[in-house]
Structures are given as structure tokens and as C-alpha cells.
Amino acid sequence: MNELQYLFSSVNGAPDPVSPTLIALGLLSAFIGGQVIAWTYMWSHKGMSYSRSYVQSLVLIAMIVALVMIIVGTNIFIAFGLFGAFAVIRFRNVLKDTRDTAFIFMELAVGLAAGTWNFTALIVGVTAFTLVALYLAQTKFGTLDTTDALVHLRAPGGLKSAIEETLKRNCVRYRLIARHMDSEDDHVDWSWRVLLRDPDRVDDFLKDLLDQQGVSDVSMQYQGEPVEA
Fold first, then answer.
1. Which of 161, 183, 184, 224 is deepest in the core (most CB within 10 A)?
2. Both 51 and 99 in a single domain?
């Protein structure tokens, strides 16, 4: 069979013998597929655990797996020999993000498909994985509170109902997390955890609180978006 016929054929496994052109085709497809997955990781990555060496390793893993599949072919004795060789290797690198594991598994799948010249599965799989990964990153899927903040203020104890009305107008939800009463007067230091309706109207929200008679020392620790990936 001509090497180019492997591009969109349903053939799995290697012909006998494997030509240098077919080996190069498998490694090249693993490199391209690995690059696409690595670029997807870079575009969709959030947080503080980014590593350039990890991104480079993603491309190399796909090529290594493809080469292993080409070497093994249908020879069960070579397969057992490779498994024995890999068994003595100890990998001590701990992934900081569970999401990184998904990209490693995808690179393994890319290498398996490229090493068996199953290019149809390779193209469809890489395309689907890339689209889903970018969708999850763009929509921030899985994020709970994107505008969480802490509000601190000082006010007389009798103003609690009025303050809660202000919170209700400006917040999706709110929860009292701390209260400290001053022994010298009837003023109370309040701390509220809030989820704002409109993060761009923080100044208006704080002004509404200060407009309450007796409210002072209003401060807000605004997190914006969580740091987690």
C-alpha cells in the first residue's frame, strides 16, 4: 500500500516492513498533533502553575509514544521488552494541577493514533479536544463565585435591617460572617461576604452603604476572579 493511502484509510497497525517514509509520517503527525494540544494548553491555561518545560514535554510525549507504537508493531516480544524497560524508570515529578493530567492523556492518545497511522481518529480527536478545552476556558466552566468580596463597616446595631436592604439591592447573595460589638457604645463592626450583581458598580455600592446614617469605616476586599485554574 502506498504510504499516502494511510492518511485517511481505516488501516490500523504497521505494514511489514515499515518504510522510512511511513515512520517519518507517523512521527510528523505526532509532532503536529502534539503541537496543537500544547498550544491549546497555553491558550486555555489559567492560574500560577504554568511551566514551559511541561508544555515542551507534551509535544515530546506524543512523539515518544508514536515511536514506541511503531517499534512494537505487532511483535508481542518487543512489547514485553519495552514494558520491562519502562518499569525500571521512576518519574518523581508531581503535577500541580489535575487539569494537566488530561493533557498528558490526550498526548498519549495522539501518539497512539499517530504510531498506528490512524490519522482519521487523530484529526477528529485533536479537533474535538481542542474545541472543548477552549470552550471550557472561555466560559470559565466550573467557576462558582466570580465576584466574591468581603465588606467591612461600622454602624449602630439598630441599622442592621437597613444595611441588609442595601445589600439585597446590590448583591446576588450576602452572608454575615463576623460581628464585633464595641463595649463603649452601641456601634458594631460588621463583616459581610457578598456576591455583587454588577462588579463594575463597586463605587456605587459603597456609596449606598455610606449614605446610611451612622455608617462609617466602610471598606471592601474585592477578589474579582478566583486565582484557581
1. 224
2. yes
